[in-house]
Design a protein that fits this description.
Length: 205
């Protein structure tokens, strides 16, 4: 659920149609600044209640931000289709969010927003420490790389295989995703099954 709240922030801040207003952007950024280091610190020391409180407060602001009229993206849209296959709502964000960021960046849909968000995250000492431990160069890691490192550090699933969804389900997932409103409002609108399959191929194993 913590990563789901991160997903709310990231897809809000990276939205382009419409872009978040100043109040929504501030809410999402503040939430992300509490959630990411808070989750990492909680994972490292479950007895430390201060970062756990930060996560709770961040989750509240994340929900406020994503209900402010911004159209979310494909991490949410494709994730909705994984629910009927028994995948928890939060786990879908762990699997899909980095891949969706990379997909949107590849087609240059919201690169400026992603870079701004990447810089915000790597400026945090806790996040920078995770990247260093995992051998990632802060200067070259993109937003998808940063999110992948954070989610792996938290020990959460990073592939469909991790949650028991096989390759035989990809075609149906892709077809159903095209009917989800958040896939249509993704910074690169998903209008063809091949687009969804491109994202799913990045997370199948």
């Amino acid at each position: 659920t913590g990563v789901r709240a991160i997903d709310h922030c990231v897809e809000t801040l990276c939205a382009i149609a419409p872009a978040p207003d100043a109040e929504t952007e501030e809410l999402a950024r503040n939430a992300l600044g509490m959630l990411v280091p808070g989750l990492l610190r909680t994972k490292a020391n479950r007895e430390d209640v201060e970062p756990r409180l930060k996560c709770q407060l961040g989750s509240v602001d994340a929900m406020k931000a994503c209900t402010g009229g911004v159209q979310l993206g494909a991490s949410h849209g494709i994730g909705h289709q994984l629910g009927p296959l028994g995948v928890g709502h939060g786990e879908t964000s762990c699997i899909l969010l980095p891949a969706v960021c990379k997909f949107n960046a590849r087609y240059k849909a919201n690169n400026a927003q992603q870079e701004k968000l990447r810089q915000f995250l790597v400026a945090d000492s806790v996040v920078a420490g995770v990247l260093q431990r995992r051998g990632l160069d802060v200067s070259t890691a993109d937003l998808g790389d940063v999110l992948d490192a954070v989610i792996r550090e938290l020990g959460m699933p990073r592939s469909l295989k991790d949650v028991g969804v096989g390759r035989d389900k990809l075609d149906g997932l892709a077809a159903h995703s095209l009917h989800d409103r958040w896939c249509i409002s993704n910074p690169v609108p998903l209008k063809e099954k091949s687009q969804v399959l491109e994202i799913l191929e990045k997370v199948v194993e």
